[in-house]
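Can anyone check this?
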Amino acid sequence: MPRSKPLLAWEPLPYIVLFVAALALSTARPDSLPVVFWSVAPVAALALVYFILSLARERRLRESNPNGNGELSSLAGLEIRQIEGQAGAPVTTVAESGRHQPEIDLIRIHEGDRAVLVPRATRWLGRRYRVGVELVAGDRVRRAGFLPEAAEKRFASSLDELRARGVYVSVPARITGTARPFGVDLELARVIETLEGELSSR
């Protein structure tokens, strides 16, 4: 799995390019330095075209499932491999769950007990690729955080191979705590054998 989202796919880039082009155009006046102005103007026009095309692309990515940040809107149309839990199995605590308390609380209210692991997920405006944790309750799917670094190093590449085939892994999840801040624990003990079985059978 790549370490980060390509720079050209980074959401703030079109806005930065447009701002820089507009700033350059505002300082190049045709009555003072026509040569500079007519050199900058085509570049600014190209920046505007790039900005418009990028907005259209970003809209398509927002409407995809998963979207450009690796968030799921639903499980419809996705191939899910459901891993069952084991009594007494160790758990892994989801990282950055503090940033997703409203989403976790909603799933807790609806008694969700599963999570889907989504590789190539990013934080809002972030570029680093991580493995997102999407909690599921009925037809509701919400981001709860990310796999911690140790688990990410272990599973990310294999999960990404499955993602390329349209397959995602679902694991048992437990929301901890009786009030905010809630935590989320995952059972990942059987993920490796499932990943190995999936990848060796294709």
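Reply from J.R.: I decoded it. The longest strand covers residues 167-176.
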